[in-house]
Fold these 2 entries.
Entry 1:
Amino acid sequence: DQQVKQNSPSLSVQEGRISILNCDYTNSMFDYFLWYKKYPAEGPTFLISISSIKDKNEDGRFTVFLNKSAKHLSLHIVPSQPGDSAVYFCAASATFSGGYNKLIFGAGTRLAVHP
Amino acid sequence: KAGVTQTPRYLIKTRGQQVTLSCSPISGHRSVSWYQQTPGQGLQFLFEYFSETQRNKGNFPGRFSGRQFSNSRSEMNVSTLELGDSALYLCASSRPGTGTNSPLHFGNGTRLTVT
């Protein structure tokens, strides 16, 4: 049973345009959500997070939106750059039932930003 | 500040053997978590240690075990290796557990191949 789903295995975007990566979850106990970026042969790198008490969090070119009623979150990258090409993982945790460091990951979306 | 360090980077073992993987967290981080990444299952939580105690455990068989030392360094052991244990094993650390969420910072992983 996949509790965190990233339904798009890949996404191709032109440099300078917006990249939108989507993530759905099923467990209503999740209260903390994160996005990680992963290059080949490296570990995941933390990008941005959002608590369930918020619906938006921004950090430079990266913005995460959370829609709790739809159990959906998205990561917007504006403008997209070739260096953003990587696999993006959505992750969630349930602070009071699963533990803050027990992250449930989605399968990942491979983003390709082309010139 | 040095990141999470995992050794060795690559390991080849035979079925039935056992293996020990090592992780040094970021200085000052007291929580260490382990994840398994496989192409078919994505990133899956193994266990988390804090102050030398296992605080959380995922759904893996008892062949997978770990420990944490007083300097927060952690080791993970897999006994009686099976072919399906071939994976990238990722260690992650986070700042002192205060009950609030903080992002996990991952190492580059140990690639284990079981033949």
Note: Chain B has a mean pLDDT of 92.
Entry 2:
Amino acid sequence: RKEVEQDPGPFNVPEGATVAFNCTYSNSASQSFFWYRQDCRKEPKLLMSVYSSGNEDGRFTAQLNRASQYISLLIRDSKLSDSATYLCVVNSGYALNFGKGTSLLVTP
Amino acid sequence: GAGVSQSPSNKVTEKGKDVELRCDPISGHTALYWYRQSLGQGLEFLIYFQGNSAPDKSGLPSDRFSAERTGGSVSTLTIQRTQQEDSAVYLCASSLDPGLAGGRQYFGPGTRLLVL
């Protein structure tokens, strides 16, 4: 079983829609959680860290449920520029464990 | 400011040849990581350096792969006797101080390796 699992999508949504991505992880000792964004043929870039209390950055909200080992990302009022692959990332030491990513396409 | 740089950006080689990939981390970042991303796959951890030492080489797929880091800065990943399955994007990342929880990692643009 892969350590981090995500629905690969693709998610095709119209501009302005709200979209949610989910992710589960298998290592209960994991300590840090992140969402990274990867554009086509580009390197991953940190979108936001995820905290147990939940955190928000503009249109993006991340939630962590340690008991269920579940992480989510909510994007409100989606923009064309949000089209990318969203990577769920879990750290259980020094290396990052990446999910395969969820592909989002926002259409006009 | 300067980010993580990698060279070459693209490399095409013939099966059986050796290749060397270079990573220049952000100045002052003590931790350096190599990952591999094959087509349609997630990122796969290869090796981690803290300073010049590599406490964990368990991600290296075979003994054809090796890496070193000198002066606590530049790192090279060497693949000997390349195989077609080595074709992938090799990404390098660096962070200030990973600790146990891992610090934010900054990625370079990657080297796209194609083995013919």
Note: The radius of gyration of chain A is 13 Å.
